[in-house]
Fold:
Amino acid sequence: MNYTINVSRGLATGTLSFTSGQTKVNTTCYWDTNRKIPAGTYEKCSATTMSHKKNSLGNPREAVYIPDVKGYSGIFIHMGKNPFENWSDGCIVIAENEMLKLYNAISPKNSHNVKVVITDSK
Structure:
């Protein structure tokens, strides 16, 4: 199965939306406005865990890896806490409970079966 995550960005916050079966995520997302990755369509993304970052339970942090971002490496959609933008080095950050819903709906993991579409609002 293939999945699509849509991110609509405003100046400092945006909306991340994802639907798969009964799972619906429509949540505010954040990023470091000084390290904003280019808008575009990113293919071959994967639900995975971040090996050097932990979630609130001390386990590897659930995330969606976004490969091939021009000028960046190690870009993910992942959980964060307020102030959310401080959790980003170019990554897109959402609340942990929303990240877990999204992550748990994607199967199999590490399978390049996710497309992330980032658009900038006018």
The chain has one helix and eight strands. The chain has a mean pLDDT of 94. The CA atoms of residues 13 and 30 lie 5 Å apart. The first helix runs from residue 96 to 105.
